[in-house]
Specification:
Length: 436
């Protein structure tokens, strides 16, 4: 990572169409963001790469897409109604509001005055809503604050419908909602965000081994995305910091512009969730081991990641300032090809026919295979810069010679090297360079 400031990234994201401040025409809506045309492609790539690695390429994990609004009983049983609190304090001097567990000492981080905090008050982070047309007792429900509980309450459905044997996992991606006390750092902590969670059920005796294995697998996934390993680290929670149900928690952290912070948490949640839901619902949520002829409640390992935080880490990590041949600064988002929102850009040297017609033909030939863009505005140099700035690994230039030799130029984002290839071999030549 170059030492990019968050402000620089925020403005690049808005200017180029990755992330827009939400409701901006009405003055904005604090710490809420909309993903633009490039952001949505980047997000899709992150989610697809996770799904591939956690579900499709494995033989022991299946997917799920559960409802966002469930029976309120779910959140009673999971402990969220009782315990999903953060301690909140206000500074009497500047009226700033903070999470007490994020403060270091008695000094207000905003105004610098010491000892003017209110007593900490507990604040439940779940958003409440009402189901049905009239507000009455029993109509209150919650927006889910995590996707995981949707998995636990479907444990038996999945087990029965797929006839799975242990160990196996259930994975889910989707929006979660938390009425966070303190927000900020762009898309790092927001009220509405997207999670990718997997609950891996196993025999109690194997849980520690699977916990370690999932930490390794998840860490490697970030390296495979192209994140510099020097910007990744593990934060193993000491036993006194663990939630009462956890037999181990390790966070994977990224070195963001403001310091190390959590990307993903991997927890050994023991049999806590299934036991809670079984007790509260009166339904059996266990597993019958045919060989041992016994029933038991599986233990569960949970890797829980946030899509938005991963996107921010990818943006920070990819941001690089290189020099062009004239010694000018060249901003490049050095995304790995599978992550990049645009994989190949087609750049005709002229907007006039017959170059334009040939260019459109070249574009149509590659469009089914990758995320592509066609850009015929402004000078070719400016167009290369623009593609560098959004992280497009390869550009294809169609020029006047192309009409004669039926060949085009592939230009590499990182090396700026240009090679001439016949249009007939273009797809293969791009595939060789991209690796997919
Ligand atoms: P934090 O302490 O940073 O608020 P957490 O430990 O409460 O996060 P978990 O409950 O473990 O987070 O949620 C799993 C993942 O979901 C986190 O690692 C993070 O990537 C993502 N996540 C949680 N809360 C938010 C949020 N408010 N905005 C964006 N992503 C979030």
């Amino acid at each position: 990572m170059s030492d990019v400031s968050l402000d620089t990234l925020v403005s690049l994201c808005k200017q180029r169409g990755f992330v827009f401040p939400a409701s901006e025409i009405y003055g904005g809506f604090g710490s809420t963001y909309d993903y633009g045309p490039l952001g949505v492609e980047l997000k899709r790539n992150v989610k697809d790469l996770w799904w591939r690695s956690v579900v499709r390429e494995r033989s022991d994990v299946v997917g799920l897409d559960s409802a966002i609004i469930q029976s309120p009983n779910v959140w009673e049983a999971s402990g969220h109604v009782q315990n999903f609190h953060d301690p909140m304090v206000d500074c009497l001097e500047c009226k700033g509001r903070f999470r007490a567990d994020h403060l270091e000492g008695p000094t207000c981080p905003t105004c610098g005055v010491a000892g003017r905090f209110t007593e900490a008050r507990e604040f439940n982070l779940m958003f409440r809503t009402q189901v049905g047309p009239v507000a009455e007792a029993g109509s209150e429900a919650y927006l889910r604050p995590e996707t995981a509980q949707g998995i636990f309450i479907n444990f038996d459905h999945v087990l029965t419908s797929t006839r799975r044997r242990l160990p196996f996992g259930i994975a889910q991606q989707g929006k979660s909602f938390r009425n966070e006390i303190t927000l900020g750092n762009f898309i790092f902590r927001t009220r509405e965000f997207e999670q990718m969670e997997m609950e891996f059920f196993c025999a109690p005796a194997e849980s520690d081994e699977w916990y370690q294995r999932w930490i390794d697998l998840r860490e490697q996934w970030y390296v495979d995305l192209g994140i510099d390993p020097d910007n990744l680290r593990r934060d193993v929670h000491p036993s006194e910091k663990l939630s009462h149900y956890s037999a181990g928690t390790t966070d994977l952290q990224y070195r963001y512009p403001w310091g190390w912070d959590e990307l993903e948490g991997i927890a050994n949640r023991t049999d806590f969730d299934l036991t809670q839901h079984a007790a509260a619902s009166g339904k059996r949520l266990d597993y019958f081991d045919q060989e041992a002829n016994e029933h038991f409640v599986p233990h569960v390992i949970e890797p829980a990641a946030g899509v938005d935080r991963i996107m921010l880490a990818l943006l920070c990590d990819a941001y690089t300032v290189l020099q062009d041949e004239k010694g000018n600064d060249r901003t490049v988002l050095a995304f790995s090809p599978r992550v990049a929102p645009v994989t190949v850009a087609v750049l005709p040297i002229s907007r006039k026919e017959p170059v334009a017609e040939l260019s459109r033909k070249v574009w149509a030939g590659i469009r089914p295979h990758w995320a592509t863009q066609y850009d015929d505005t402004q000078s070719i140099g400016r167009r290369y810069r623009r593609q560098d700035e959004i992280g497009t690994p390869l550009c294809v230039t169609v020029d006047f010679d192309s009409l004669e030799d039926q060949a085009v130029t592939i230009r590499d984002r990182d090396t700026q090297e240009q090679v001439r290839v016949p249009i007939a071999n273009l797809e293969g030549a791009l595939r060789d360079r991209l690796g997919f």
